[in-house]
Amino acid sequence: MFCIMSSMKFMITEAQRLAEQNLKSLSDNDYPGRGVLLGRFDQDHWGGIYWIMGRSTNSRNRCLRYENEILRTEPADPALVEDPSLILYNAIRRWDKTLVVSNGSQTDMIVESLKIGKNLAEGMDGQYHEPDEPNFTPRISGVLDFRKETPQIWLSSLKKSQIINFESDHAIYHYRQFAEGLGVGLTTYLHNGSPLPTYDRPPMILPVVGNLKEIVEQYWQCLQSEHLISLAGFQIDACSLEQEMHIINRYKSKSF
After folding, report:
1. What is the pLDDT of residue 255?
2. 0.90 cut: is pTM over it?
């Protein structure tokens, strides 16, 4: 028993060390793009972070708004919108005992798939990366699933295939057990560049320590650059399923 417990403690400590290293790398990254992070805050609370970045005027002209259990992107100034197709979407939605988060229109597709009994992998079947040549931004998505006794985390990345030009490679990550104070995250890009290099690695282990506001402020400071536009943190009580949302927007919407 002592050996097993010592081994588990070592694994958690090692994961915490790696999480802090990854947070430092994220902080040093000038442009990771959009990001999805899901994790377990403490014994009873699960949640995560979603953020958006932008380099062009069209991409930067955004903010996040939460209404009726839906977090969506909105133009900060509707008069400046050039092309809404890939920048305006529902980023977070709730359905039953699940929460869905993504960087695009696939949020709604995943929710509809969950309604008919499919999981994240099945819900993204037949979908593709974004058609924004030459970057071909990956579609990153996540699901917090409270339908079983132990909450579970799903992450998905759809990125341009390196084998067939018009195809997408689909990676799914399923976490059935999770340690407190840790999360896993995906970003759209490895770093700044032209074209932007796709994030093509497994999810990063990242820390989620403190209350929701503290976690949101930590990541806002961590990601702080001229490109960071908006960041939202969300928390769900695993017992009551009550949800809390905290948002920081660089630009105030003129449509509110």
Report:
1. 53
2. yes
